[in-house]
Amino acid sequence: MNHLQQLLQAHEQLLSVSKEKTEIIKAGEVERLSNILIEERKQVQTIEQVEKKRSQVTNELYHQLQIKSENPSLNELVTYIENGAEKITLLDHMTKLVEIITALKANESLNKQLIEQSMQFVQLSLNMMEPSMDRMNYGGGKQTSNHQTKRSMFDSKA
Length: 158
What we know:
Helix content: over 70%
Distance between the termini: 114 Å
Number of domains: 1
Oligomer: single chain
CATH class: Mainly Alpha
CATH architecture: Up-down Bundle
Shape: elongated
Strand content: under 5%
Order of helices and strands: HHHH
């Protein structure tokens, strides 16, 4: 239960970092974005460590309860817990974790879209600054002068 609570807190912190990253992307602050990405990486490493511990505890509980399963999971473990209070607490933590992960995915999707839009804007700006062959005045272009013989109003032959 303790590891699940730690996992929940770590995901809440990662969601907070993700929301801060959204604001930084909107503001276009590249240096702060670099710093927040480092912080995000640390949070992900923390989550991986806590998840590994949670998985070990889950496997130990399966062994203690003599449950045979190829993929031990908390969802399956809940069905074997008899203590009502523990079961409710576990279900509550699991529900909150799923909600946070869902919010995190949505926020990261928004961040991805914002970054893609920024990249498109930068590419468009670069394309506008780059001279094109059509706009160049020298070489390669067709001249559009009229090659008709010019006649004066008075066509006189002497």
